[in-house]
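FORM 12-B: Structure-to-Sequence Request
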């Protein structure tokens, strides 16, 4: 396709015109610029030359705000029982939270009660034993099915 045809196609597009975004920082800077450009009467009070924070100041203040909150990090993928996953996902979605935030809050509350932590740990160990058995069973099925395939190939 030649550049001329491409330019014609570009020119034919009916692109919607979007009004400029109202950005709080930009509008302050623009209003200051308008004040500077308009004739002013002399005043006894001197205005600071840059009342809006500089980008470095803004970044520093945002970083200071972030330091007030606990640091987070990604955790490995969570594997849940199928039905429990669906139920927990629905529960969290109805309340406008994520599963991760629910687990975080549940731990924060449960960890304060030693009896509750013990009950949860007992249940977790029981589930761990079940998962371990499932893994062993799947591995045995795979090994047996692979050995039966080899037997079928060697007998032919």
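FORM 12-B RESPONSE
SEQUENCE OUT:
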């Amino acid at each position: 396709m030649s550049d001329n045809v491409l330019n014609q196609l570009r020119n034919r597009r009916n692109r919607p015109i979007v009004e400029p975004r109202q950005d709080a920082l930009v509008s302050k800077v623009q209003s200051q610029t308008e004040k500077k450009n308009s004739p002013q009467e002399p005043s006894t009070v001197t205005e600071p030359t840059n009342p809006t924070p500089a980008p470095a100041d803004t970044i520093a203040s945002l970083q200071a705000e972030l330091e007030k909150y606990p640091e987070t990090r990604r955790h490995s993928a969570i594997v849940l029982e199928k039905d429990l996953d669906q139920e927990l996902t629905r529960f969290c979605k109805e309340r406008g939270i994520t599963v991760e935030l629910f687990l975080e809050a549940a731990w924060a509350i449960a960890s304060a009660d030693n009896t509750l932590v013990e009950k949860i740990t007992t249940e977790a160990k029981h589930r761990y034993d079940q998962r371990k058995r499932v893994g062993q069973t799947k591995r045995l099925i795979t090994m047996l099915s692979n050995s039966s395939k080899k037997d079928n190939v060697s007998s032919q």
